[in-house]
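Quick one:
INPUT:
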């Protein structure tokens, strides 16, 4: 951001001052935005803010833009938290967490490794062979019995699919993972529901 509040793109290795965001912790009052008048690359600035404050500043609306703009000396340009990142998680997670080594990513590849000694990240060619991490999928099986009252044929595939989807949405609302897999337990004749005849009172 420049001193008139406009955004500019720049090479991340260019050394500039930067603005950190500082959250209010344990009831202590801090200045929310802090101009750090040290010349650092974007990655170095990000690391500095994370160690000394909270994070490089994000701008979410015009009011915040004005507050941050006032900190930048006339004619100067300072780093903020917005950056271009083409890397995405393979499970489509929207996490914005990044833990790059100070000189990375350097464009040497489209895949990311976790460096053993520094515990930071590096990009490399996807054809290289390396150890890898997997999620351990814990399978928990639970059977639910439900009773349905309807004048329609509830064993109709469209109806059973709709009922299952509604059950899943309610369970997700109560804390079930959206990736959980639900299925009907079918009887030997292929039906899901068993008709229960009502007994007439005499």
């Amino acid at each position: 951001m420049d001193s008139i509040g406009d955004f500019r793109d720049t090479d991340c290795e260019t050394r500039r001052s930067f603005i950190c965001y500082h959250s209010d912790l344990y009831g202590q009052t801090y200045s929310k935005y802090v101009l750090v008048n040290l010349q650092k690359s974007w990655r170095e600035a990000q690391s500095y803010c994370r160690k000394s404050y909270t994070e490089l500043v994000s701008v979410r609306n015009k009011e915040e833009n004005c507050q941050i703009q006032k900190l930048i000396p006339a004619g100067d340009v300072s780093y903020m938290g917005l950056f271009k990142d083409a890397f995405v998680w393979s499970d489509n997670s929207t996490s914005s967490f990044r833990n790059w080594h100070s000189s990375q990513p350097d464009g040497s590849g489209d895949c990311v490794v976790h460096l053993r000694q520094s515990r930071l990240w590096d990009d490399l060619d996807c054809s290289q062979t390396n150890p890898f991490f997997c999620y351990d999928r814990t399978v928990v099986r639970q059977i639910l019995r439900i009773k349905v009252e309807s004048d329609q044929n509830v064993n109709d595939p469209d109806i059973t699919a709709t009922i299952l989807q509604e059950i899943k949405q309610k369970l997700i609302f109560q804390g079930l993972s959206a990736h959980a897999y639900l299925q009907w337990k079918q009887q030997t004749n292929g039906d899901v529901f068993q008709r229960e005849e009502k007994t007439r009172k005499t």
